[in-house]
Amino acid sequence: MKRNVNDFMAAVEADNLEHFEQKTTQAKFFADPDGVMAPLAAFMREKIQADALAQATLTLTDTDVSVRLELSVINLPLQDTKTIGKIMTTDVEKPLNVYAVIEAADVNVSGLRIDALAPADTYVDQAETADQSLHDWLNLQIEKLQTAETNREETDVKKK
Questions:
Q1: pTM recorded for the entire structure
Q2: CB-based contact 103:138 (threshold 8 Å)
Q3: C-alpha closest to that of 135 among 115, 121, 107, 120
Q4: Residue-wise pLDDT tens for the chain (160 aa)?
């Protein structure tokens, strides 16, 4: 699955993408990240097969954390599409990849982490491998969030 970069940027800026949104709590997400993310992964596969641009978002309702799957030509969040024209040639066709994005204050200094999971076609054709990549990525992000929470509990000054 490929897109002309100019056409991709125009489509994203015009919000010509398919959206899927789901909400859950942090406890449910930590307890079963694969199960919670399964509908998002299924949605992405469906949209890839339909040759449609897509973004699937999971919002944790009791924290300021969101996790997304996005189809893109570069490892930048879709909201940063205008930056693409500044850093890459735009009059060419590029393959689309599925990226995993997490926004959370405790994930790193910038509060944002984005990583490629697989090329779009591979995400469909090798679903089991792609799901394992998502599983590993989710567990790493959850570990970061849990470590930050534990560190905060251990280092915060207790009020008397």
A1: 0.89
A2: no
A3: 115
A4: 999 999 999 999 999 999 999 999 999 999 999 999 999 999 999 999 999 999 999 999 999 999 999 999 999 999 888 888 888 888 999 999 999 999 998 888 888 999 999 999 999 999 999 999 999 999 999 998 888 776 666 665 555 5
